Amino acid sequence: MPRTHAALPRLYVEPDLVAGGSLTLGKEQSLYLAAVLRKTVGDEVVLFNGRHGAWLARLTSDSKKSVALEPMEQIAAQTPPSDLWYGFAPLKTERLDYVIQKAVEMGAGTIQPVITRFTQVNRLKHERLVANAIEAAEQCEVLSVPVVEAETTLERLIDTWPADRRLVLADEGEASASPVDVLGTLKGQKVGILIGPEGGFSDDERTKLRALPYVVPISLGPRILRADTAAVAALAVIQAIIGDWR
Ligand code: SAM
Predict the structure, then answer these.
(1) Distance (Å, whole) CA 210 – CA 219
(2) Quick check: CB of 170 below 6 Å from ligand 1?
(3) How many Cα neighbours within 13 Å face the side chain of 102?
(4) Which of 42, 148, 182, 210 is the most exposed place for a label (fewest CB within 10 A)?
(5) Ligand 1 pocket check: which of 102, 225, 226, 235 to mutate, most ligand atoms within 8 Å of Cβ?
(6) Would you list the domain boundaries of the chain?
(7) β-pair partners for 217
(8) Class of domain 10-76
(9) What's the predicted TM-score (pTM) here?
């Protein structure tokens, strides 16, 4: 996708984007544009809302409390949201922020925290995860913000897993091998990827998961990767072999 207007700030907004329309930003985004970036009336920004593609808009008011903008023209058509499902055992705060951002950058369409036996975090601040996903979407120029689901448990995930989707399991117990051939067999299928917590999956979790017909265990090489490294590595090989990097 050719990059255009790369130098302009990109903001995710909720309202519809129509030429000649008008929208007013909330306090945080107004402060960011008017105070931090010192944008003034007439300056241009790029807006997206996940439905109408990317729009060039200009400031019609630069009040630090409520910047007003007028969308002028669509500069990129809306792309379909990614179908890639990303499940992970949540990590402690700053690494959790990191994992959410990397999942967005690597093209996940659904981000699902999964509480497993050795997960060290149980209560998540959902609005913080969503804010991280929006910030990452603005930065990496996607046009849809991935859906960040509320946390679930591994048991509930298994009970509700859709029959038409394969679940790639990053299994640290899998004999070291390249995942290229295994992933190649999933071309054209709906997939999800599941990454365990710092303490890994418990033995009975691994046994249970590996016995499921839709689960495809993969190795991510001979070294034990930290959970956030494994997230990026797994998403990279999936995108490169059967995803949207082709
Ligand atoms: N139990 C080990 C530990 O505590 O160090 C490994 C846990 S690892 C830090 C966290 C998660 O990353 C694993 O559950 C798995 O999903 C993934 N992972 C890490 N290294 C991997 C590898 N070499 N192959 C497959 N998955 C890996």
Answers:
(1) 13
(2) yes
(3) 18
(4) 42
(5) 225
(6) 10-76, 85-241
(7) 169
(8) mainly beta
(9) 0.93
Write down the CATH number for the domain with range 85-241: 3.40.1280.10
* pLDDT tens-place values along the chain, 246 residues long: 567 788 999 999 999 999 999 999 999 999 999 999 999 999 999 999 999 999 999 999 999 999 999 999 999 999 999 999 999 999 987 899 999 999 999 999 999 999 999 999 878 999 999 999 999 999 999 999 999 999 999 999 999 999 999 999 999 999 999 999 999 999 999 999 999 999 999 999 999 999 999 999 999 999 999 999 999 999 999 999 999 998
Per-residue burial over 5-24, b = 16 or more CB atoms within 10 Å of its CB, e = otherwise: eeebbbbbbeeebeeeeebb
- The residue contributing the CA closest to ligand 1 atom 7 is 200
